[in-house]
Design a protein that fits this description.
The chain has helices at residues 17-30, 37-46, 51-56, 61-81, 89-96, 110-116, 143-152, 166-174, 205-209; strands spanning 4-7, 101-105, 128-130, 159-163, 178-182, 197-199. It is globular and about 55 Å long. Helix 8 (166-174) links the parallel strand 4 (159-163) and strand 5. The protein is of the alpha/beta class. It is built from nine helices and six strands. It folds into two domains: 4-15 and 85-209, HAD superfamily/HAD-like (Rossmann fold, 3-Layer(aba) Sandwich), CATH 3.40.50; 17-81. The model has no long low-confidence stretch (mean pLDDT 96). The chain has a six-stranded parallel β-sheet, with helices on one face.
Length: 211
Amino acid sequence: MKNFILFDNDGVLVETELWYFRANEKAMKELGVTLELEYYLELMKYGGNWWELAMKHGVTLEEVNRARERRSRYYQHYLRTENIFIDGVEEVISELSKDYRMGIVTTSRRVDFELIHHEKKLTRYMEFILCEEDYPRAKPHPDPYLKGLELFHAHPDSAIVVEDSQRGLSAAVSAGIECAVVHNHFTASHDFSHATYRIDSLHDLRGLLTY
């Protein structure tokens, strides 16, 4: 029986994956480097570093660091101006909160996470939020989800992870937790063969958990 749900954030609770790519694409273009979507998605599967591509083109580390800062500004602009919310998610989370203890485990920086969820419509249902500053190694390493289990004082068998990316799935599998992958068009090319479940939307999660 599952008592705990660990949600990824980007691509699961909010539709931000595309805008993070766009911000990186724009910052890389200013360095004279084209960041192809296919290349980005391939690196994303394993938590790769696309800034290495710029350095292979002769861009210095100092220039890359400045580009990272611009990327963060571009991304935050998109978070403020684009529609990143997924219809029906709040209703699903509210309903699940009646029977399950829940937390969010994300690779986002906390400053970006707080910008996304400043109205706290979803986070009010969560016992904790783990951002990239809160664990030693990011997904696809198991550390983020192991930290979530620790905070819940839970055994892996009593929890389920909800993810949308291959690296997130890998993190859950490495932590010994069953994972439900929710369909996201942006990450549709990823390998989800190790997922315990595949669902079309979060609306399907309740039925899966009570099956």
